[in-house]
Fold this sequence. Notes:
Blueprint: H1 2-13, H2 16-56, H3 62-69, H4 76-93, H5 104-123, H6 127-159, H7 164-220, E1 221-223, E2 231-233
Antiparallel strand pairs: 1-2
Helix pairs in contact: 1-7, 2-3, 2-6, 2-7, 4-5, 4-7, 5-7, 6-7
Amino acid sequence: MESQFGIANVWTQGDFVTKSVAIILLAMSLASWIVIIIKALDIFKFKKLAGTAADFWHSEDFATGLKKLGDDPTNPFQQLALEGREATAHHRNTKAHLHDSLDVSDWVTRCLRNSMDEFTARLQSGLAILASVGSTAPFIGLFGTVWGIYHALLSIGLSGQSTIDKVAGPIGEALIMTALGLAVAIPAVLGYNALVRGNKSILIKLNSFAHDLHAFFVTGARVATGSAANVVPMKKGS
């Protein structure tokens, strides 16, 4: 109850700068928790989708494997498989582009890498917010504390009452801003570290799947053009 009373006093007795600092910290906290929740749900979703990637290689043909990956357009494993198929078919059926100087291995590698880079950028979006909040919130709270102490001391000096009971209240309430800054920064830092670890595990699985796809399209089999998308033998070096 005392902390709540102190925070209420900071808001009711604070000036424009103090209230602005409190609003900024509140907005930063909301932004951090929104990012943490959304990205945590994404990580859980992609980890679940990674389980379907193992079933892909237990399929009779490529079309059956795609069905096992599901029809979710945000599935990065499905996007990689489709990108590899399209890259292989495009390279072998087109003879009028600069990429003809590249062999099929280099071309498939480039297309798969582009797809992975796009997914990586999408996966890591929002982490900059957590990093910014974690690094700046303590200093914003400290600024609010310094500003509050400065005005508290001015008020005490003008009143001429410098007893400990007159000083402790305003100074203690000003220090609440530093505590609020830490309360905003700590979850942002912990959330950032947890999300980075989660993203890393997903990217490792995606990178392994991409290597397997590269070997499949370059040295193992080639997807025939057409709606059936059946797997036919691929002649090495053709």
